[in-house]
Amino acid sequence: MSRRTRFSHVAATVAVVALAAAGCGKSSSDSAGSSDDGTYSGKGIGLAYDIGGKGDQSFNDAAYAGFQKAEKEFKIGGRDIEPQDGESDADKVQRLETLAKQGYNPIIGVGYSYAPAVKEVAAKYPKVTFGIIDDETIKARNVADMVFHEEQASYLAGVAAAKTTKKNHIGFVGGVDIPLIHKFEAGFIQGAQSINPKIKIEKQYLTQTAQEGGFSSPDKGKDAANGQVEAGADVIYHAAGLSGQGVIQAAAEHKVWAIGVDSDQYGQSALAKYKDYILGSALKNVGGAVYDLAKSVVDGKPLSGEVRGDLKSGGVGFADSNPKYQAMKDVVAAVDKAEQDIVDGKVTVNTQ
């Protein structure tokens, strides 16, 4: 079984990603959330969603899968809270403080936009473990910065796109024009150009800021994808959260390929009618990161510091659920080789 196939299975079940064992995480000596005898004493896991919220079939839903798995396996409680349109950092602070006051531990902010709030609230509640996904700027004993090598998964998406296109013309749709999404674009372009240096690549960001709806507007994603198809692209990769549903819908309507992101979007029920046109997905095991942090707290050894997922650890990957993709033996072989080359250090993937 290839690493890619194994990751697909792991992501589907949100199994444990042993990042700490691989040296990717550091454990705090303060067993926050544990009683004196080492048993877990918190109320459960607290989860605060990013823009787009639960139901995006992508980033937030991946976090929710890990949340559910932790609740079930550890028999702990849990509370997840949706974001509000146009909210401020103060709103996020209030949300995290509410979870802390109610006794939840760990508490996880899903998305880089929670960085100021996590930094402020973690300082007020030093015995609670906080996690933040997609940010590595908070340096505190009770904070785990859960980040990923998104560019590596995106490289595989680029290889798949370049091997699949019939027109040597592909596209990338980013949700918001920020450094995090630049990593997705950079990896995708590098992967595609490793197959065909002269391939034509359409590139578009939906908005300059998240507040403008770049991660939460399927209509914007659909318009962008329609434009790229009209320009000649026949494989489109999105890194756009909820907006990506519009990209996938447009691709299906034009009968061209879409490549999903974060979750295995081929298997998402809300996208079922478009799944025949979802070639694969660049995976980020957000659910595994959420689960791992909860496990570390329940075990009395909370993770802290940077916890980074990559291809080698199983923190990122490329989903192969679509039988049509599996039947493309030359595409599968190219993606497998690219993955092995990255893991072996033969290829270093660009981040910008």
Can you describe this structure?
Helix content is 39%, strand content 21%. The protein is built from 11 helices and 13 strands. α3 runs parallel beside α4, α5 runs parallel beside α6 and α5 runs antiparallel to α11.
Question: Layout of SSEs?
Answer:
Blueprint lengths: L2 H11 L12 E2 L16 E5 L10 H16 L2 E5 L7 H13 L2 E6 L5 H10 L5 E4 L9 E6 L1 H15 L4 E8 L2 H17 L4 E8 L10 H14 L3 E5 L4 H11 L2 E6 L15 E7 L1 H13 L4 E7 L6 E4 L3 H4 L2 H15 L9
Parallel strand pairs: 2-3, 2-4, 4-5, 5-6, 6-12, 7-8, 7-9, 9-10, 10-11
Antiparallel strand pairs: 1-12, 11-13
Helix pairs in contact: 2-9, 3-4, 5-6, 5-11, 7-8
How many β-strand stretches? Answer: 13
Q: Report the C-alpha radius of gyration, rounded.
A: 19 Å
Distance between the termini: 32 Å
Unreliable runs, pLDDT <50, ≥5 residues? 1-36
**Looking across the biggest beta sheet, what order are the strands in?**
1-12-6-5-4-2-3
What labels would you give this structure?
globular, 6-stranded mixed sheet, alpha/beta, 352 residues
Quick structural overview:
The protein is α/β, with parallel strands linked by helices and 352 residues long. 39% of the residues lie in helices and 21% in strands. The chain is built from 11 helices and 13 strands.
